[in-house]
Structure formats: structure tokens, C-alpha cells
Amino acid sequence: MSNNFLQAIKARRSIYAIGSQLPIAEDRVAALITEAVKNSPSAFNSQSSRVVILFGAQHHKLWDITKETLKKIVPAEAFGATEKKLASFAAGAGTALFFEDTEVVAGLQKKFAAYADNFPVWSEHSTGIAQFAVWTALAQEKIGASLQHYNPLIDDEVKKQWDLPASWKLRAELVFGSIEQPAGEKTFIDDAQRFRVFK
């Protein structure tokens, strides 16, 4: 099927073999991430997503924090594999940290009490859409990325390191960089198991 948006979606893959070089300037990457998130939909136009973009030494600091955090809880005999995985992320050019502002969510719960139970769920929808939009936008620039979830283990140290508001809840870490090895073939389950069309 020929559709520019669908082609962009197909280009977005989990790239685990990444390097520190970028095909475009860091400022351009930051602008791309900013525009992708700004134009992502959110329930009641809440705009609850927050993003911290880390390059270079700041990016490495994140993965040092993650390593030190995991060292305290991963058994020593298993830590070698964990350390290797974290090193592969640190080898990238940067990381986009995705947060949701719980203060915004709480405000909406108070303002629209009838939907109070839904706002945390819709907040998760918002961050997922924002993450997908950024990931796809990066792929269009030939930048590889993979989405990681070391939250909530690293939340406190991350907030402390970058002096972030207490209300920001870390939801994911999108690590990105040059594509050193493309993703393998993507497989799909049968459409009949996933889709039903009625006319």
C-alpha cells in the first residue's frame, strides 16, 4: 500500500546496534523531538507530556545512573549481561526521557470529576503517542532508536541529577544514534487474529 505516513511507520524499528554519530545536528534533533511532541494529541488537549533530551556527557550520565542503580539489585553473576546491554545504550548519541506531569493529570481529575478514573489512562495514551511520534520522526532522518523502561528504578536519581519537578513521572527512555546494524525482518501474526471488518 502506498501511503507516505504508512511508509514512515514501517521505517520505525527497534534499532539496538547504535553509534554516537548523528546524520543531522543535535539542535535539529532537539527541534524534531520538540515538534513531534508538541503536535501529538492528548486528552482534553492536556499537553501533559514532558521530555528531557540528553546528548553527549549528559546522555552517558543517564546510563551511568542506570548501571549504578541496577548494580544494587541485579545478582553479581547476572550483572555482566546487564552491563553489556547498558553499554550498548550508552554507545548511542543521546536519550529522550519521556515524562507525564501528574500535576496536570490531577488538575483534570479535579476539574472533570466524572472522568477522574480515566485521566491516568489517557495520560498513558498521550505519552505513548508522543513516544511513537518522536521515534518515527527520528527514523525519517535515518536515526536509529529503541525504547527502554528503567523507570521507576531510576526516577529519583534522574530527577535529582537534572533538577526536575517532583510531579514529573518518568515513563520511558528513547535511546538514539547512528544505525550500526539494521533491524531484522519483522514478522506479523495473521491479520484474521487481529482485525474484523463489518460492512
UniProtKB/TrEMBL annotation:
GO terms for cellular component: cytoplasm. Pfam families: Nitroreductase. Keywords: Cytoplasm, Oxidoreductase. The lineage of its organism: Bacteria, Pseudomonadati, Pseudomonadota, Gammaproteobacteria, Enterobacterales. Residues 9-177 form the Nitroreductase domain. InterPro entries: Frm2/Hbn1 (IPR033877), Nitroreductase (IPR029479), Nitroreductase-like (IPR000415). It comes from the Bacteria. The keyword Oxidoreductase applies. It comes from Affinibrenneria salicis. GO terms for molecular function: oxidoreductase activity. Its main location: cytoplasm. This is Nitroreductase family protein.
